[in-house]
Write a structure and sequence with these properties.
The chain is an alpha/beta fold. Helices cover 32% and strands 25% of the residues. The protein contains 15 helices and 24 strands. It starts with 10 loop residues before the first strand and ends with a helix.
């Protein structure tokens, strides 16, 4: 591709020797720059992108893309300099030009909780009905039996467009992807053709980045206000005020809207959840018609996520008959209310990613419904170097909904782990403080009595603990299995 092909109304030439200069790629990471590439000057959370201009130039960069204010910091004698008002958006545009192909039917799911479950459920419905569909999100890239790990919930725009092109080349035309608030704020999805957009809910999270709930909401709203195709459809959970606000955004754009939830104002209303023999019977009303189906999920939020996936599969062309038939075969995604099998035992242990106040509350309330005689135990902590304000809220939730609480380390990162635990403990009086996560899990399992339920929350699918810059192998699910064997629950 030539430099001239990358120039448009938003990307201007500041310095240029030859517009026919070949460009081999683009990156904002100077370590990935090779000969003939563009280096995009993007500021990180802690480091200014301009600090890496020299390194990018010495690695072979043939052009620099930056904001006008950064031109003065370019000391290298590079032939080509491009300027733009929004470097992140410009990177998305250029990435789309390098990798123009995308699946035909892309669904983007945003919200504080439920994203991973919805994209996973939808991909499984497609798979069970022999439709070539894929998912991209926290659990990586998945289609059929293929799995590829990724570091981000939503990939950076360069890798995202590369993966979209690869999926299209494999003739995969159906894709469900998670859309994080960070990705939406950073314009990673702006050049992806989104046909269906989902809003699940909004509750406190990532305020270390967004600073306020209003800012957080506006980032989520970008998906519907600017990115969703005008001829596309919005699928919105209207059980909360934020869902109503998203609906208002879509009405202004004349976007077609489908609503779901427990509210009687929802197009798809969940009427009843009835438990029997470890399964659930769900009564669902669409307009004036009622449907009944069975599934493996018992919590209200899990059922809501499944109903959202049903709607998405339906508007993507699958009949409700085929969808309902496949639901009983669908299980929870890794680390999402994942039950640990304990043969010949009446205790139940669940591993869940719940790391926000609302997610923890929903998980505990869902499990509370399953208890008839025993107690509800909880092991959890809070991450370091993140939204510190939610620690008190999560502590209050734990104290209110769990019978016994074990406070332990999550991912302390560069914070003092003991200080994090102390901050939680002072707001959760009825708790036991155990810093070592493995010891906390063992202790909780050892203290379980007949028919007790234990929730281990916060890390879910994660396979490491982040401590002082190191990723230390740790898997809640494996530790639980080890503990079960050692304390003779089996």
């Amino acid at each position: 591709m030539y430099l001239s092909e990358l120039i448009d109304n938003d990307i201007h030439v500041y310095r240029n020797i030859n517009k026919k200069h070949p460009i081999s790629g683009i990156s904002s990471d100077s370590r990935q720059i090779k000969k003939g590439m563009i280096f995009a000057v993007i500021d990180g959370i802690q480091t200014k992108g301009k600090k890496f201009i020299n390194h990018a130039y010495n690695s072979g960069a043939s052009a620099i893309l930056c904001n006008k204010k950064d031109i003065k910091d370019i000391k290298v004698k590079i032939d080509n300099i491009l300027v733009t008002k929004n470097v992140r958006l410009a990177v998305s545009k250029i990435a789309k030009k390098f990798y123009p192909n995308q699946p035909n039917f892309i669904t983007a799911v945003t919200g504080t909780n439920g994203k991973t479950s919805i994209v996973s459920f939808l991909r499984k419905i497609w798979y069970l009905n022999e439709i070539k569909g894929a998912s991209i999100g926290t659990l990586g890239i998945e289609y059929n039996t293929y799995k590829k790990k990724t570091k981000l919930t939503t990939l950076d725009p360069i890798n995202l467009h590369k993966e979209l092109s690869l999926l299209k080349n494999k003739k995969i035309n159906y894709l469900a992807m998670e859309s994080s608030s960070h990705a939406l704020a950073q314009h990673r999805l702006d050049k992806v053709k989104i046909k269906y957009a989902v809003f699940t809910n909004l509750s406190r999270d990532h305020l270390d980045y967004h600073k306020s709930m209003q800012s957080y909401f506006l980032c989520k709203g970008r998906l519907f206000k600017y990115i969703l195709d005008k001829k596309g459809k919005a699928v919105i959970n209207v059980d909360t005020k934020y869902g109503i606000k998203i609906k208002e955004i879509c009405v202004k754009r004349n976007i077609k809207i489908i609503t779901y939830g427990f509210s009687n104002k929802a197009d798809w209303q969940i009427i009843k959840i009835k438990n029997f023999n470890e399964k659930n019977s769900i009564k669902l009303k669409k307009n004036k018609k009622t449907y009944n189906f069975e599934c493996n999920f018992f919590s209200n939020f899990e059922v809501e996520n499944l109903v959202c996936a049903i709607i998405l599969a339906n508007i993507n062309g699958l009949s409700l008959r085929k969808i309902f038939k496949s639901l009983i075969k669908i299980k929870e995604p890794t680390g999402r209310m994942q039950k640990v099998l304990i043969p010949n035992n009446k205790n139940k242990i669940f591993v869940d990613f719940a790391h926000t106040p609302e997610a923890l509350k929903n998980a505990l309330m869902g499990l509370k419904k399953q208890i008839s005689k025993g107690s509800l135990l909880l092991v959890f902590g809070c991450g370091g170097n993140r939204d510190k304000g939610k620690r008190k809220v999560m502590a209050n939730v734990a104290e209110k909904f769990a019978d016994k609480v074990f406070i332990t380390d999550d991912n302390p990162r560069f914070e003092n782990a003991g200080s994090i635990r102390a901050e939680i403990s002072k707001n959760c009086k009825n708790s036991i403080n155990i810093g070592n996560r493995k010891k906390a899990i063992f202790k909780a399992i050892k203290l379980m009595k007949e028919e007790d339920i234990l929730l281990i929350a916060g890390k879910g699918h994660e396979k490491v603990q982040e401590i002082r810059g190191k990723a230390i192998p740790f898997d809640d699910f494996k530790v639980v299995k080890e503990a079960i064997a050692k304390v003779s629950l089996i």
